Amino acid sequence: MNKVILGIESSCDDTSAAVIRDGVLLSNVIASQKVHEAYGGVVPELASRAHQQNIIPVVHEAIRQAGISKNELSAVAFTRGPGLLGSLLVGVSFAKGLALALDVPMVDVNHLQAHVLAHFIKKDEADNSQPSFPFLCLLVSGGNSQIILVRNWNDMEVVGQTIDDAAGEAFDKCAKVIGLPYPGGPWVDKLAKEGNPDRIPLNKPHIAGYDYSFSGLKTSFLYFLRDRLQENPNYIEENKADLCASLQKTVVEILMQKLRKAAKDLNIREVAVAGGVSANSGLRKAFEEHAARYRWKIHIPPFAFTTDNAAMVAMSGYFKYLAGDFASMDCVPFSRVEI
Ligand code: KG4
């Protein structure tokens, strides 16, 4: 029998719903919240209110675009955490109400695992581009920078992670210093294309094992600019592209160095990337270069699955559904949770 899973994502500032049938994507609807732009970051209270406004039309549209009736759903999967508690509560409560009304099981999904499992979403029946186990996944977003050893759909281990800031945070905070809008990552990426990546020397951390650190890079970026601005108040305006290119090159080198080390030590050549920062063109290029040089088989997600989306939640829910791993009605969201 077909397994049709509705996924609901509301962990941060995107309200999303998606339908997956036996691993094949039928719909993926995302309502992004513009309300935060004026504040230079996500305002949690405004995010949960916007989720409340968006959730019914978004779920309705996902079911409509999938061309199914809601009575065909086998289960409702939802993001339980990590994320903003007020935002998560909206998705979790809605999932409970819908599952109860339809008399179908609920599946709680770890948002970080969902990013990894986005690589298993099939665009059609014939799509067989999914990674094989075991593989390494570099998960890089605004809140996380992790190297994950994926043994199976429901068996993952974090082998390295940031001890301070995430890679996306480093992009965003440095971008803010040079006057770029929030989130700065995509702006840095855009401007970096016109700049010289070797122009500005920035600090790289020396951390043991597979862990990351990005706070030193942020500080060195800040101090470098403070000194230059004393000599030339227009330094940022005159050198923006070079600053972006050098920053991007440094972040990508830090990320790839640890990933290379993990791949070598664990003797794994199948390597994936996930999360918002996986949209970065420099990182994508580095993956392609590593594939050629180290004979890695790489998996780079389509842009639609790099940011928060419910397709990955439905996909994760599908694997947990198959494993018979369901959530109960007293399940509550978690703001922080490990993989
Ligand atoms: O996974 P994600 O959508 O959600 C959060 O973790 O919040 O990741 C968002 C992060 C932000 O830091 C954003 O600046 C970064 O991903 N990002 C990028 C690019 N696109 C998004 N960073 C660098 N280059 C990009 N093209």
Textual characterization of the structure:
- The chain is of the alpha/beta class and 339 residues long.
- The chain folds into two domains: 4-128 and 305-322, 2-Layer Sandwich (Nucleotidyltransferase, domain 5); 135-301, Nucleotidyltransferase, domain 5 (2-Layer Sandwich).
- The protein is built from nine helices and ten strands.
- It has helices at residues 44-66, 85-102, 111-117, 167-177, 185-192, 215-231, 235-266, 281-294, 310-322; strands spanning 4-9, 14-21, 24-32, 75-81, 106-110, 135-140, 145-152, 155-161, 270-274, 297-299.
- The strands form two sheets. The chain has a five-stranded mixed β-sheet, with helices on both faces. It has a five-stranded mixed β-sheet with strand order 8-7-6-9-10, sandwiched between helices.
- α2 links the parallel β4 and β5 (106-110).
- The radius of gyration is 20 Å and the shape is globular.
- The model has no long low-confidence stretch (mean pLDDT 96).
- The chain binds 5'-O-[(R)-(carboxyoxy)(hydroxy)phosphoryl]adenosine.
Report the radius of gyration as a whole number of Å.
20 Å
What fold name stands as the CATH topology of the largest domain? Nucleotidyltransferase, domain 5
The level of helicity is 40-55%
Helical segment tally?
9
In what range is the share of β-strand residues?
15-25%
CATH architecture of the largest domain: 2-Layer Sandwich
Order of helices and strands: EEEHEHEHEEEHHHHEHEH
Shape: globular
Main β sheet profile: 5 strands, mixed
What is the mean pLDDT? 96
In the CATH hierarchy, what is the superfamily of the largest domain?
ATPase, nucleotide binding domain
The kinds of small molecule bound in this structure are: 5'-O-[(R)-(carboxyoxy)(hydroxy)phosphoryl]adenosine
What is the terminal-to-terminal distance? 30 Å
Uncertain spans, ≥5 residues at pLDDT below 50? none
The count of strands amounts to: 10
The CATH C-level class name of the largest domain? Alpha Beta
Going across the biggest sheet, name each strand in turn: 3-2-1-4-5
SSE-based structural type:
alpha/beta
Question: How many separate structural domains?
Answer: 2
